[in-house]
Design goal:
Layout lengths: L1 H24 L2 E10 L6 E4 L10 E7 L4 E10 L5 E11 L7 E5 L11 E10 L8 E12 L1
Parallel strand pairs: 1-8
Antiparallel strand pairs: 1-3, 2-4, 4-7, 5-8, 6-7
Length: 148
Amino acid sequence: MATYKSILPILALTLISMAVSASLFYSLRITSRIRVEYPPNIKIGVYTSSDCTVIVTEIDWGTLTPGGVATRPIYIRNEGNIPVKLTLSAEAWNPTEAKQYFALNWNYDGSQIAAGKGVGVELQLTIFANCTGITSFTFDIVITAWGA
């Protein structure tokens, strides 16, 4: 009987460790296309470099686990002749149910961007801890500009 009493706590700890390890190995592969939208009198460019020379059309978020957060810097330049402001949204989720497990944000403060000027922003993707059953997904990041 003494051996069963000493084995039970060890067995319980082993099972808990296995459950925690399994949740740590569940990960998601994520990529996003970047789409810009603006009216005919406005133009913006989205870049990976602060000198606005390397255009970015896709972001590879890498592999994240539920509860994880990834950040990626981008640079947005007003390439038109009038000041602009920007908004951010996410669309075209594949698979569509992935939408319920994410939050996409950025640190753009809503300020006006003068003609010919750029702003550096950081995109942040958060995967909610309750995300299950999805191992990869894609979505479009939509940056919309309008005259300020």
